[in-house]
Amino acid sequence: MRMPWLPSRNSASAPVPRIPLRTRTTEACAPLAIRPFRLHFTARMLSWTGSAVAPVGLAFAVLGLGAGASGLGLVLAAGVVPQILLLLIGGVVADRFSRARVMVWKNVLCAAAEGVAAVLLWAGSARVWHLVAISALCGAAGAFFAPAAGGVVVEVVPGEMRYQANALLKIGQNSVKVAGPAVGGALVAAFGPSWVIGWYAATFAAAAVLFARLDLAPARTKLRTGFVRDLKDGWDDFWARSWLWVMVLQGAVVVPVWLVGYQMLGPVYGDRYLGGAAAWGLVVSAFTGGLVLGAAMALMWKPSRVGVVVCVGTGAMSLPLAAMALTLPLAVLAVSTCAAGTGLSVSMTVWSSLLQERIPKERLSRILSYSTLGQVLPVPLGYVAAGPVSALFGLRATLAAGAAAIVAAMFVPLMLSQVRALTLAPAEAEAEAAVLVTAPR
C-alpha cells in the first residue's frame, strides 16, 4: 500500500499536498484499531518488558553463585544452542498448527521455568546447573516461538496495514530497550535478582493469557505430508528465491561481525580508549536511541526500493566499527552508533514486511526459520574466533576488518538485479508467486 502522503511515480509534475502530521500519525497507528493485533502487540510488549530487565538479573544471579564470567557464558550459551538446533523444526510446527497455540505453550513453559528459577534463587537453593537447564528449556521453546510470532501479523492485519504493524512492533520493542538495562540494575540493587527473574516469569504468564485470546486457526494444508517433506518444501521455497538467500548470506556476514565488534569487542574498546563503562554506556544509549528513531522513521515513511533500503541500512552498521578503528572522538562514535541503530531498525522493519508480502502465509514460518538460522549459525564461531584474532592482529585492526566486511556485504547483494528491484508492490509479489508455482521442482 502506498501511504497517502507519498507521491506516486506518475505524479512528478503534480503538486504534492501536505498532509498534517496528526493525520499521518493516525493512519500509521491504524493497525492498533484491530483487536487481534492489539492483543498481539500488548502481549509482545509485556514479554519485552521482562526480556529488557532479565539479563541484568540473570547476570547477577550467576555471579552471586560464585560462578564468574565462565558460568555466565555457560548459562547464555545454553539458551542459544537449542534455538539453533530446533529452529527449523519450530518453523514446521508453526506452519502446521495454530501459531497462537504455539506462542501460548512457549510462554507457559517459560513462565513455569523462570518461576522455578526465581523460587530457587529466593530460597538460596539455586545452583548454576539449575540456571543452565532453565536457560536451555526457554531457548528450546524460543525456537518454536520466533517462527510463529513472525507469521502472526499476516493472519491478523490486512495486507495494506502490515508495514505499519511491523513498524509499531519495532517501536515497542526498541522503546523498552532504552530503559530496560537501567531499570533492571535498579531492581537488582533494591530487591535482588530473584525478584527480577520473578517479574520475567510473570510477563510470560500474562503474555500467554493474551496470546490465548487470539484464536488463530491452524493451517489447513499439508497436514499429512510429514516433517521431512515440510522441511524440504520450505527449503525449496527458500532456495527458489535468489534475492532471499542472497540477503540471508549478507546477514550471515553482518550479524556475527556486528555482535563481535559491538557487543564483545566494544566494551573492551570502551575500557581501553574511552576511560571505562560510563563512556561506553553513552555509546550503548545512542544505539538504543537510534533503534527507536529508526522504527519511528519506518512508521512514517514507506520506501519503494526496499532491497536498496535494507542493504544501505545494514551498511550503516559499519560506522561505529570504523569510528572505533580510527579512535574518533566519543561524540562522533555516539553519532555513528545512533546512525547504525537507525539503519538497523529501518532495514528490519522493511525486511519483515517484504517477507510477509512475498511468502505465502502457510509457508512463512518455515521460510523465517531458514532465514533466521542462516544468520545466527555463524555467531558462535564468531565469538570463539574474535578473542584470538584481536590478540593476534590488534583490537583496532580487527574492528577495521569488521567494518570493511560489513561494507562489502552491503554492496554484494546490490549486484543482483532482483535485489535492486525489490518493492512492496502486491502485483510484483503475485507475479513472483506465479513464476514459482509453475517452475519445476
UniProtKB/TrEMBL annotation:
Pfam families: MFS_1. It is a multi-pass membrane protein. CDD domains: MFS_MefA_like (cd06173). The chain crosses the membrane at residues 45-65, 71-92, 104-123, 129-154, 175-191, 197-217, 238-259, 279-299, 306-326, 332-355, 367-386, 392-416. It comes from the Bacteria. Residues 28-420 form the Major facilitator superfamily (MFS) profile domain. Its main location: membrane. The keyword Methyltransferase does not apply. Keywords: Cell membrane, Membrane, Transmembrane, Transmembrane helix. The keyword Cell membrane applies. It is found in: Cell membrane. This is MFS transporter.
